[in-house]
Write a structure and sequence with these properties.
Elements (H helix, E strand, L loop, with lengths): L15 E4 L3 H12 L32 E5 L15 H4 L6 E5 L2 H5 L13 H17 L2 E3 L11 H7 L4 H18 L5 E6 L4 H11 L15 E4 L7 H13 L10 E4 L5 H17 L5 E6 L1 H7 L2 E7 L7 E6 L13 H7 L17 H4 L20 H27 L17 H10 L3 H10 L1 H6 L22 E2 L3 E2 L8 H6 L5
Parallel strand pairs: 1-8, 2-3, 3-4, 4-5, 5-6, 6-7, 7-8
Antiparallel strand pairs: 9-10, 11-12
Helix pairs in contact: 8-15, 9-13, 9-14, 10-13, 14-15
Length: about 500
């Protein structure tokens, strides 16, 4: 029996982080099941079985964790055909929970051809059918096929998918929602995605889309929870207002609408904020309410050559998972030191926290190529890494991210708080206490008044992207990515997959 770090058991009642699985990483797990995709001589002695790197395997995984997200935009949607690359997701343990995103980013970027505001477009129609069938076949929860409102503000995206206005995005999403309502089947629960680039758009979007979650309007076919996109996923003022309306509109009912997912949420401070919200809603409105959030940071960081090396959760400070460029030197190919000892002794990282994966690696397991070694096409490259090196470092980063989220919540429960959630000179500034008051009021008007009265608090609680609080009411949110590679990485709910795809050819 391997020694496991059971992250499922450590989850407690915290908001749930969903690693947004990279298809590059999944391919290693799946392909190894059906062939020797990675030769046994390449497997590190400390990790002889690829399933050790599969957190969705509760028996063999080094750090079992039952929750993940997988996007239709990165998947093979044809479930009728066997595809070993998809096996980590398709043939996972029955106890795991998978949220299937619908691939709105691929629509916006024109990766999925179609004029999505034209409801007679055959290409768009075919893609809707593929995505829905895929969700019904592999997912515990599936997201509706929303058209993000940033699409029409990006001229390239607008031209790629035929969405040229806010109304185009709304109408295309409503059409997709109707398709999901009419054609859904099986046990997969559907989350109604809310978009909007500012408070006014978000309110209008909600008013139009909430009917699809109404059991009276759509008995037995209504949507079963909520997905928070656009300004809804980064603005706590708007989030709290939306939750109050959901409760009093009868759209957050126990056993009916139990799940809310926040797209692309990477700030460590938000992990404790969302736990506060989950606990308050459970206490006062829906005891089954669950909040989840995802990001692809562990995978995209590795593709950018970055490795998580430490976690910062000091009282009254900025919280973060720190990352930096790591060892990549051919001189390490014959070095028998542990990975941690090598990077620490050689000054590559001043601090380095081992994961269950890195703790089993020697530096030579990652820096595999020696000077003069040739790659698969007979050429000598500049890097000491092969493509499997990236997979190993991704697994390390996934553990570090989950550990950071859970550790932050444990620290917060001990009274250790990030700077943005408290104020050293104002005893009335306590986000946790105010959130509890919002839902304890049990009255729509009183709850909304409490939220508005503490606008300064919400402005301090910065989201992953865009404006927060009052600044977002009448201004379009910024659609940007903020990268601070030596501290933390923040990104949109989707990202350009091309860097990860290129890793499959790194040996070439």
């Amino acid at each position: 029996m391997i020694e496991q770090d059971d992250l499922t058991a450590k989850q407690q009642d915290f908001a749930i982080f969903l690693p947004a699985i990279s298809s590059f990483y999944a391919s290693y797990i799946g392909r190894q099941r059906t062939s020797q995709y990675v030769k046994q001589t390449r497997m590190p002695p400390g990790i002889p079985d690829m399933e050790s790197m599969n957190w969705l395997n509760p028996q063999k995984g080094l750090f079992p964790y039952r929750w993940s997200l997988y996007s239709a935009g990165h998947a093979n949607l044809d479930l009728a055909k066997t595809d070993p690359k998809e096996d980590m997701v398709r043939n996972r343990d029955a106890s795991t929970i998978m949220l299937a995103d619908s691939g709105g980013f691929q629509i916006a970027k024109g990766v999925w051809p179609g004029r999505w505001a034209d409801f007679t477009d055959k290409k768009a129609e075919a893609q809707r059918e593929k995505v829905l069938k895929w969700q019904m076949g592999i997912a515990t929860y599936g997201m509706t096929m929303d058209i993000p409102t940033w699409t029409f503000r990006d001229p390239v995206a607008a031209q790629a998918c035929g969405i040229f206005s806010y109304d185009d995005a709304v109408n295309a999403t409503r059409y997709n929602n109707e398709y999901w309502i009419a054609n859904r089947y099986g046990e997969t629960r559907i989350l109604n995605v809310l978009q909007g680039g500012n408070h006014a758009e978000a309110d209008h979007w909600y008013d139009l889309m909430k009917a699809y979650s109404d059991p009276q309007r759509y008995p037995d076919r209504h949507f079963n929870g909520w997905g928070m996109g656009g300004q809804n996923m980064c603005d706590v003022h708007l989030v709290l207002r939306r939750l109050v309306h959901l409760i009093h509109d009868g759209l957050l009912e126990p056993g009916v609408h139990d799940w809310m997912h926040f797209l692309g949420t990477s700030r460590l401070e938000w992990t404790v904020l969302l736990t506060d919200i989950q606990r308050a809603v459970r206490q006062y409105a829906n005891p089954r309410f669950t909040v989840s959030f995802d990001c692809a940071s562990p995978f995209l960081a590795t593709a950018n050559g970055q490795l998580y090396h430490s976690i910062l959760t000091e009282n009254r400070s900025k919280w973060s998972y720190q990352m930096a460029a790591t060892a990549d030197d051919k001189r390490y190919a014959t070095d028998n030191r542990s990975f941690r000892d090598a990077v620490m002794q050689d000054g590559i990282h001043a601090q380095f926290e081992d994961s269950p994966i890195s703790a089993r690696l020697k530096i030579r397991d990652v820096c595999i190529y020696r000077p003069g070694d040739k790659n698969k096409i007979g050429k000598e490259g500049t890097t000491s890494w092969d493509s499997f090196s990236y997979a190993l470092m991704m697994g390390h980063n996934v553990w570090m991210h989950i550990e950071a989220v859970q550790r932050a919540n444990r620290q917060y429960d001990l009274g250790i708080a990030p700077d943005m959630m408290v104020h050293p000179n104002d005893s009335n500034f306590d986000a946790r206490r105010i959130i509890d008051q919002v839902f304890a009021a049990r009255d729509r008007s009183k709850s909304l008044a409490i939220i508005d009265d503490h606008a300064k608090v919400w402005e301090r609680v910065v989201g992953t992207r865009g404006f927060t609080g009052r600044r977002a009411v009448n201004a379009h949110s910024q659609f940007n990515s903020l990268f601070d590679m030596d501290e933390e990485i923040e990104m949109n709910e989707e990202f350009d997959q091309s860097k990860l795809d290129q890793l499959e050819k790194i040996d070439e």
